[in-house]
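2024-03-11 09:14:02 DEBUG pipeline.ingest accepted 1 chain
2024-03-11 09:14:02 DEBUG pipeline.ingest length=211
2024-03-11 09:14:03 DEBUG pipeline.predict start
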Amino acid sequence: MNDMNRLAGNPENLEQLTQQLPNPNNGYAGQPWLVEERDACGVGFLADQQGRASHDLVQKTLIALGCMEHRGGCSADRDSGDGAGILTAIPWALFGQWTTTPNNSGVGMVFLPKAGAEEAKSAIDRIFTEEGLTVAGWRTVPTNPATLGAQALDFLPGIEQIIFTSTQTGDALERQIYVARKRVEKANAEVYFCSCSSRTIVYKAWCDRRS
């Protein structure tokens, strides 16, 4: 290991370093697991060591997300990015109008079709009810279409959150939610769940490449 560190610290020995690594990758110096994996999206993780929830953590996460432009693509309109988002614990205070019992509640972040959104929501309500979930209501997610590229704007879906409760908790509730979600997606391919859980939520956007 000391020999490898010494070689890595000397640019003149990069070729020699490559020769010593198993399965050299067309002259690219570095560990094979690093140079062979080229198609992964950028991912960042931020956490509070004491597990405390805070808006400051979300703000820092958005800053980190803004540093990922070099890992994203740009669409044919030369403006729309290829999508980005953040996953966080559900901010239950935001949903106090619909539920005050987080232990047996969940939230789904749903992309709805432009045409037939109300019909799609009614079908979701029905399936969730059939799976033992009680739908408490729907919340329209605030959006800012001004940040979208032309192509992304053309495909902008309806973005709403479904809030529901159950007699189940923990892993049993997660399994119940999974079955309901999969039934919805099988019934209507134009409905997309960014997330649906009793624990986490995903905020996702197809912003312009500068955002």
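2024-03-11 09:14:41 DEBUG pipeline.report DSSP finds seven helices and six strands in the chain.
2024-03-11 09:14:41 DEBUG pipeline.predict end
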